[in-house]
Design brief:
The chain is mainly α and about 100 residues long. Helices cover about 45% and strands about 0% of the residues. Helix 1 packs antiparallel against helix 4.
């Protein structure tokens, strides 16, 4: 399926690679069972295409309508921040807890 309306750096570069957002979810343990993952990825595409650098509060507001029963959302938020930094060419810095 072609996502021609999205910049290729946000969606998949080709059929054999993950997008930065998909890769970030995988590498930062932002998914467990996978049931909510597709909805989260799709709802985050506008944020990623806008090249925003959202803070944690903004991300949690964006995820408000997506229910994940497996995680505490911290890894999901971390994954999104990681992907946004990667897309924008910024070095990822994890927030102090």
């Amino acid at each position: 399926m072609s996502m021609s309306w999205s910049p290729s750096k946000v969606w998949r570069p080709n059929d054999h690679e993950l997008s930065p957002l998909q890769e970030a979810f995988r590498d930062n343990h932002g998914l467990q069972c996978g049931f909510c993952t597709s909805g989260m990825l799709m709802s985050l595409l506008p944020l990623m295409t806008a090249n925003e650098q959202p803070d944690e509060q903004r991300l949690r507001e964006l995820l408000d309508g997506n229910l994940c029963r497996c995680t505490g959302y911290q890894n999901i938020v971390r994954a999104i921040q990681y992907a946004a930094d990667k897309i924008n060419g910024v070095e990822f810095r994890e927030a102090a807890e």
